[in-house]
Design a protein that fits this description.
The chain is mainly alpha-helical and 146 residues long. It has six helices and no strands.
Length: 146
Amino acid sequence: MNRVYKGLIAGMVGAVFMHIINLAFYYLNIVEIRFIDWGGFVFLGRVPHTLAESIYGLIIHLFWTGLMGVFLSYLLSDVNSRFSLLIGALYAFFITFVFRVVLILYKIPIFSEVSVTTNLLNTAVAFIWGLLAGEVFFRLNTRSKL
């Protein structure tokens, strides 16, 4: 299994848990936007309204996080388990920061004007994604060397 495939799998596995947590927060009315909304907005130009659009947004976001996992896999070359978690978490924080800056610079209201609670919890969930993606990549990497 090559590095791209391992990174894609790690990013997507992390994203599954990311979506479960985010959707729970959303349906409990704790956060205002879903990660599905990000994927839908990029390809539809607006937040998804129907079930089909939401599924489409989910698929887009899963592949996007898979791609982010591929980039992470190149940061994690020959890293032991302890550092893979740290690098994954820092990487997730970095990409969250970059995305927030872009949203604020381009003044996209639905994403740039969210509550502190939404911002904090979505950043925490992204941080969890980084931890999971780093751990899954490390395990796939060590498993393939056996």
